[in-house]
Design brief:
alpha/beta, 14% strand
């Protein structure tokens, strides 16, 4: 992911901001549970991007990927509305505990900018539904030039969204975050309709890691900088998620990107090892069995 990329990440203050006060209010409505639901994954599964992740001779990339991770941020759907049959195939290839978190297409968010999109949205939803129990939260990523002046369009879209279908929204225009009143109106809208507010932790846009949750879901898109600080940043996220868990958070959806995606599985393995220890989880650590050899796979730091 190139969004938020900087040339000198060592000059960025990656300190996570304090939890937004409204997040504690939202989480206080829920019971504190011993073990939150954690879904951790990357954004792609193809060999071209994840070089070195797959053992030699791997014939089916998704089948192997889904045995290493329990989820995928499905960015491919942003570029193409895949037919129902494709989702059925993906569902059959993956384990029972695996979930897909698909992005709504650019036709909806970028080309038509939420105007007159009912038919195409319904088409996406119909196709996504073939994942059945493996369908995670769908997310809408709006163009960086989609600012608060389009609030009514976003409001109408959210009001028409099926209430039984989990949705997360990511806004990128800086005005959503810089104006306190605008940010309050935006987050109140998401909260009123039980929509998750996507958090983006990337070097060049620290305003997007605002730590304001709007329901009982932390949908986090973490973008590493291919820099040693990436690991310290993940340590900070473990502590932040523990804080939220103790406040009532029950659902964590954490997707790891890199400017150079080849390192995403390595970061993800590090993060999973950390949350397993901190939260008493037993998530698979990707390629853990292959740490001691040099057969072309990554090794776990």
């Amino acid at each position: 992911m190139k969004f938020g990329q900087v040339d000198t990440p060592e000059n960025i203050d990656f300190t996570l901001p304090k939890t937004h006060p409204e997040t504690f209010r939202v989480l206080s409505k829920y019971d504190i549970i011993e073990t939150p639901n954690f879904f951790v994954g990357c954004a792609k599964w193809n060999k071209a991007d994840l070089k070195g992740f797959y053992p030699r001779g791997t014939k089916d990339e998704l089948e192997y990927y889904s045995k290493q991770f329990n989820s995928i941020e499905l960015n491919a759907t942003f570029y193409r509305n895949f037919p129902a049959s494709q989702f059925e195939k993906w569902k059959e290839k993956t384990p029972n505990n695996f979930k897909f978190f698909p992005k709504l297409g650019q036709e909806i968010s970028h080309w038509k900018r939420l105007k007159g999109v009912e038919e195409v949205v319904n088409s996406y939803i119909d196709n996504f539904s073939n994942l059945e129990e493996k369908l995670g939260t769908i997310f809408l990523q709006l163009h960086a030039n989609f600012g608060p002046k389009n609030f009514e369009l976003l409001e109408n879209f959210i009001k028409s969204w099926p209430k039984t279908l989990p949705l997360a929204v990511e806004v990128r225009h800086k005005d959503w975050f810089e104006d306190k009143n605008v940010f309050t109106d935006f987050t109140n809208l998401l909260e009123a309709y039980n929509i998750a507010n996507v958090l983006v932790d990337t070097a060049g846009r620290r305003d997007m890691v605002h730590n304001r949750l709007t329901n009982n879901e932390a949908f986090i898109r973490y973008v590493g900088a291919n820099h040693p600080t990436d690991y310290n940043r993940l340590d900070d996220w473990v502590l932040k998620l523990k804080e939220w868990k103790n406040a009532g958070l029950q659902n964590v959806h954490f997707f790891i990107h890199q400017n150079l995606e080849v390192e995403s599985p390595l970061l993800a393995a590090y993060f999973i090892k950390k949350i397993n220890a901190e939260f008493g989880l037993k998530l698979t650590i990707p390629n853990q069995k292959d740490e001691s050899n040099n057969n072309g796979q990554i090794s776990l730091l």
